[in-house]
Design a protein that fits this description.
This protein is mainly α. It contains six helices and no strands.
Amino acid sequence: MPELQIQIDNQINQALESIRDVKKPNYKQLARKKNLPYQRLLARSKGRTTRSQRPSGTYKLSEAQDSALYNYIARLDELGICIRLLIIVACANYLLQRSHDGLGPPPLANPRWAKRWLKRNPKFYLRC
């Protein structure tokens, strides 16, 4: 992360600490006063983390789910069943659906995600 971004993040944290006890803080005024990006200050006040702290969007599955998918595909391979993208996608979506407990629809895997998963797991390749 560039030095400037780190400095801005530190200033935002200090600004948020200074108004922690205020009931209805005016973030726009605080951003002008401290010369900080308003949208970033507002997002951090609502709990959003920095980009470097957020997980990558390409990893939809947890480690346990990824291991389960890997073992399932390995078992299919041992049985001689052709590995297809749609099988990987269906299994990943099943795992995501079963573990989803939030509001709204669960995250979904698609064939592009499955291709990236295959690149991360070079033991497997598509057949048939």
